[in-house]
């Protein structure tokens, strides 16, 4: 029984679509991200309730049971996940979305009737009179499967269940091309015949394409590929909306696809690379490799007390947070250090690189957890000109985003990537766990410069010692 008229259904879908648009707008800034997330969740809730009240559903107990099981799994996982594991969670959620879209398309194809005169169903998918619907089905099957498989591989890489280095082998480009050609051929057959077994083959080919697409990607490029696959999932969901005749799915999927594409391009630009170079750079040695070999070159190291003296008698300090800070969960300690320095009349700001951490906004969210004012967070475009006025640049757990090789070493995996120009500061202090390189797998020449001092150890522990020493000055 349908409780909502078509008019009210359209109005509620429009309200949900507006919520999704406002959510994206809110997520564009750390100040409004929490509100944007809540607005998006409210829009999704409105959409689900509208479906229940406007569509004649069968097997409602099974649907409710599936929602309950999914919620029981997802809610605890989302609440317990560490900040450093957020990209993995995004990859999992994204992959599940792509896989769900592909399964929905397969089920709709299986439920289709070959009777072109039957107007009780949504579409006659097996009729050549509806090739555009067949195209939407094939697109959803292929792209949804690519997104699912590719996201699972990115999850495995970030979770270190497999190597983070690019995985390439002889003949890989030829195999990729052959699989893609086979997928296109299978798509054509699905469009004009609606054959279920060919659709299953298309899903398998999509899974193979997703795996082969992501295997050659390594190191710092993986989060960018997650964003790209998120765009793929959005497009698959939009296409499934065409299959189901659901306008809201088309709108929501298009929003995700468009925003994911914009984010991918922004992240690639922040790395100074093209999307094609990120996906296929390993074939010519251009992808970040993620080496873990530690350097044995001599550096100038120091104690927490010496670092405290540098900070305590400075006038201006710029702190550069990185993934190491997130791993150590040292955001609250660094907030205390900021407060202690400011109590001494020292100006303290934070320099945020667009791809510091493992995803855009990673450092903003991390520091917001510690109630560090948004005004103290400066983006790369505005803070770079201020390094030359800084007495001390304190780099906590960052490496590649401050590596001068991006400007000085053609052929380097990060050459051309915009960086935070900490080398312009009068003194540079690195808090590092070891001399292992960053995700790009290359040495940072700044570590060996005369103005650079290193303090080795866990970031949270080192910050705690520095904080105690500053308070004792």
From TrEMBL:
SUPFAM superfamilies recorded: DHS-like NAD/FAD-binding domain
Keywords: Cell inner membrane, Cell membrane, Membrane, NAD, NADP, Translocase, Transmembrane, Transmembrane helix
Entry EC no(s): 7.1.1.1
InterPro entries registered for this protein in UniProt: DHS-like_NAD/FAD-binding_dom (IPR029035), NADH_DH_b (IPR012136), PNTB-like (IPR034300)
GO cellular component: plasma membrane
Membrane association type: Multi-pass membrane protein
Enzyme class: translocase
A GO MF term: proton-translocating NAD(P)+ transhydrogenase activity
Pfam families: PNTB (PF02233)
Matching Gene3D superfamilies: TPP-binding domain (3.40.50.1220)
Protein localization: Cell inner membrane
Family, as annotated: Belongs to the PNT beta subunit family.
Catalytic function, reaction form: NAD(+) + NADPH + H(+)(in) = NADH + NADP(+) + H(+)(out)
Domain NADP transhydrogenase beta-like: 11-468
UniProt function note: The transhydrogenation between NADH and NADP is coupled to respiration and ATP hydrolysis and functions as a proton pump across the membrane.
Listed PANTHER family: NAD(P) TRANSHYDROGENASE SUBUNIT BETA
Membrane spanning stretches: 6-24, 36-54, 60-78, 90-112, 132-155, 167-189, 195-215, 222-241
Name listed for the protein in its UniProt record: NAD(P) transhydrogenase subunit beta
Keyword Cell inner membrane found: yes
């Amino acid at each position: 029984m349908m409780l909502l008229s078509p008019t009210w259904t359209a109005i509620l879908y429009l309200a949900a679509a507006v919520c999704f648009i406002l959510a994206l707008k809110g997520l564009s800034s750390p100040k409004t991200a929490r509100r944007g997330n809540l607005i998006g969740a409210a829009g999704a809730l409105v959409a689900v309730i509208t479906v229940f009240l406007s569509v004649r559903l069968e097997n409602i107990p099974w649907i409710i049971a599936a929602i309950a099981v999914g919620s029981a799994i997802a809610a605890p996982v989302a609440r317990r996940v560490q900040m450093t594991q957020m990209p993995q969670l995004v990859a999992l959620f994204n992959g599940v979305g792509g896989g769900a879209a592909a399964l929905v398309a397969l089920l709709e194809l299986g439920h289709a009737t070959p009777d072109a005169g039957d107007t009780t169903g949504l579409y006659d998918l097996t009729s050549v009179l509806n090739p555009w619907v067949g195209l939407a089905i094939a697109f959803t099957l292929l792209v949804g499967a690519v997104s699912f498989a590719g996201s699972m591989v990115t999850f495995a890489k970030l979770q270190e269940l497999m190597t983070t280095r690019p995985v390439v082998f002889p003949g890989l480009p030829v195999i990729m091309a052959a699989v893609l050609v086979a997928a296109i051929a299978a798509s054509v057959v699905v469009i004009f015949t609606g054959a279920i077994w060919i659709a299953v083959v298309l899903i398998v080919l999509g899974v193979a394409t997703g795996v082969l697409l992501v295997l050659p990607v390594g190191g710092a490029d993986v989060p960018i590929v997650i964003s790209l696959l998120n765009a793929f999932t959005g497009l698959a969901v939009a296409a499934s909306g065409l299959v189901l005749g659901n306008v809201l799915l088309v709108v929501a999927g298009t929003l995700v696809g468009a925003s994911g594409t914009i984010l991918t391009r922004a992240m690639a630009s922040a790395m100074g690379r093209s999307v094609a170079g990120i996906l296929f750079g390993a074939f010519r040695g251009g992808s970040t490799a993620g080496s873990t070999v530690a350097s044995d070159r001599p550096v100038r190291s120091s104690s927490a007390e010496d670092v405290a003296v540098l900070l305590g008698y400075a006038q201006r300090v710029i702190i550069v947070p990185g993934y190491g800070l997130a791993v150590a969960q040292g955001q609250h300690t660094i907030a205390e250090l900021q407060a202690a320095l400011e109590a001494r009349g020292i100006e303290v700001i934070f320099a945020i690189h667009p791809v510091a951490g493992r995803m855009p906004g990673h450092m903003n969210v991390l520091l917001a957890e510690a109630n560090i004012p948004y005004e103290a967070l400066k983006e790369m475009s505005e803070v770079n000109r201020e390094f030359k006025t800084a007495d001390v640049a304190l780099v906590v757990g960052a490496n590649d985003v401050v590596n001068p090789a991006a400007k000085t070493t053609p052929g380097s995996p990060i050459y051309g990537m915009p960086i935070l120009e900490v080398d312009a500061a009068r003194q540079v202090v690195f808090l590092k766990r070891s001399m292992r390189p960053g995700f790009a797998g290359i040495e940072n020449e700044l570590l060996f410069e005369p103005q650079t001092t290193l303090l080795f150890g866990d970031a949270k522990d080192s910050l705690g010692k520095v904080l105690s020493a500053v308070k004792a000055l």
